Amino acid sequence: MIKNIFKGLSAYSRAFPLISELGLWKYFLIPMAISFFIAVAVFASIYKLADNIGRWLASFYPFETGAETVEAIATFVGGLSILVLGLILYKHIVMALSSPFMSPVSEKMERHLFPEFHEEIKQRKTSNAQQLVRGLRINVRNLIYELLITIPLLLLSLIPLVNFVTTPLIFLVQSYYAGFGNMDYTLERHFNYRESVRFVKKSRGYAIGNGIVFMLMALIPVLGVIIVLPISATAASKTTLELLRERRLFEKTGDNLKAEDQNRVRISG
Questions:
Q1: Tell me, what's the pLDDT at 171?
Q2: How far apart, in whole angstroms, are the C-alpha atoms of residue 142 and residue 180?
Q3: Predicted confidence (pLDDT) per residue in 79-100, tens digit
Q4: What is the average pLDDT across 230-250?
Q5: What is the reported pTM?
Q6: Cα torsion angle, 167, 171, 174, 180, sign
Q7: Domain definitions of the chain by residue range
Q8: What GO molecular function terms would the record report (predicted)?
Q9: What's the N-to-C CA distance of the chain in angstroms?
Q10: What are the angstrom distances between the C-alpha of 9 and each of 61, 106, 194?
């Protein structure tokens, strides 16, 4: 798992050169705009809600002594919780709406990096509308699972000292589902919905590695939310294509071994 996480991280070293080399920036203009405006809406809501949630949490404290301190802590905890939930919503909305624009990027990279693999494998042909529906389906599924895991962790983080464990776990969960969404831009052309889910589950480390950088970049004011999707989607496409090619080579080797075994049986018979 750790080794695969580092492999997912290392794919970013080729992201910028690939985008420039293949002239991919034009494909990212609309996704970058989507990412920016969704981020503005989400984080503006966070700013407005943080104080209200802080006061609501502080209202459960029955004493006057230390009330200001409790309210300050409650405001921080409320803001942090809204930030985490806001990042989750931002991530899945942007990834779902960007789906139709990402498939051409992945296909162009596939033709460039592995032309023989691209010609050999039969691709799934889908329309922009089908890609959008697929993106919505994947991201709604991931959103539900992520919330089911994250909300209990947020509640546990209210317990002193426990938050030293829950905070990294929340970050890794967010990273996994960010990487999941980025990898599906390539998987969409090769697998159906269920096959893609199984593929990413078997490649968790790669998804986490890709998502770690996604989450860190998304926290950079303004610039981060603009460039996060092009960079992370390109890195994920490279990683996923390499995994698909390795899987195909493994399957071909297995087929060849089966053929050799059959030939031995015929010869010995």
A1: 93
A2: 8
A3: 777 778 888 888 999 999 988 8
A4: 87
A5: 0.82
A6: negative
A7: 2-258
A8: high-affinity sulfate:proton symporter activity
A9: 46
A10: 44, 18, 26
